[in-house]
Input
Amino acid sequence: MTETTSVLDTLLQLGDSALIASQRLCERFGQAPTLAQDQQWLSIGLELLEQSRQWLEYAAELLNDGRNADQLAFLRDARQFHNLVMLEQPQDNPLQAGLCHWLYDGWHQARLITLQGSPLPLLAITARRALPQVRGHWEHSNQWLLDASTQDRPGLQQALDQLWPLCRGVPPDSHDRDEKGIDRSWRMPLKAALARAGLTPPRRVPAAPSRDHAHLQAVLQPLQGVARTAPHHRW
Output
């Protein structure tokens, strides 16, 4: 794998994951127990959307095939996305949705910390700029985890048992050379936070299921609907 391919995989992984995470937060709008919580989730979703735009713009420049960030976001098929698999899983209840986002925030923070040391200015500078926001997201998610565990610890443990097998630093079809380092830096703070919440990762973790693009397609359909209906329209 060439260095250009590796950088492109990283850009698409970050951009696509932030885009899907943002869409997932938008799906939850109006379901929080308080208006303040709803506003906070929406604010985080908008910040992730902006981060996604930046990463996808850089990816479009590297691809240099005439596409821009909007076309990468709205006109690619599900099989062409590089997002974390756990983000596209069906979120059947608020506990599962919240825990999925908590897991993503932990990975996101660890990924950006690693990229700060990249020899490529494009990656290092962008990661450094995004990190303060992502640290705020992680703190907010940690508080949510503590609050949720006091209200429904058994339900949260059940959601953790379902999502933990999907806690991989990279998608199954990626060949990111930093996977092992990111996995270690990701899981350590996760396990510490879980312990504070009285939760335990499953000891025997089954192999992650093969990727089902139908799940991602269901997430992309409302996100891409307008752009696909009128691909040449400008607002």
